[in-house]
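Problem: given the chain below (214 residues), write out its structure.
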Amino acid sequence: MPNDIFDPTLDEVEVEISDNRITKGEEVNLMEKDPTMTNVMVGMGWVLNSFDADTLDLDVSCFLLNNEGKTVVDEDFVFYNNLEARDGAVVHNGDNMTGAGDGDDESISIDLNAVPFEIMKIMFVISIYKGDEKDQQMSSVRSPYIRLINSSNGFEILRYELTEDMKDSEGETAMLVASLNREGPKWHFEAVGELVQGGLAKVATDYDIIVHTG
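Solution.
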């Protein structure tokens, strides 16, 4: 279908498919996009090389952070071993270990009105399970993206394509992908795109989660 939509009552209207695309560093006021939006889903998808001897196992996680950029309780770390934050405001919809299938590979649902008052930021992270042990890195991921959907109508509000920001990986096994930032009653979505050495454990430690090993 062509990108141009013609209405005989108008001269010509052009609708760009890329209107909802954002890039690293951009921040979008979600309430300006839709002031009625209260429930959102953050979905991430990617393609893995099927011919690799040891296929990457990618995981999506998020951290609920206070105004000091730290978690308050362990439940503020939502990942494959803790699928729900306190009060059920943030719910991980399940671990996909293979990346198979079309569409989002993993997703997280958020009730914006139920997020605890002291939480000022929700940081979304993608990481390779045991990536350092297997000598794998983020540059092996193809066509990665994160998108935000209005859960009430399924409309995709924005999408951040990550290929350019992942391709220069030099051994990093995790990325701070994007964040939801609270400003009073408003929420902003920010494209972060920051690669991290040390994987998910390093990110968790930085946010005051005690990581148990062994």
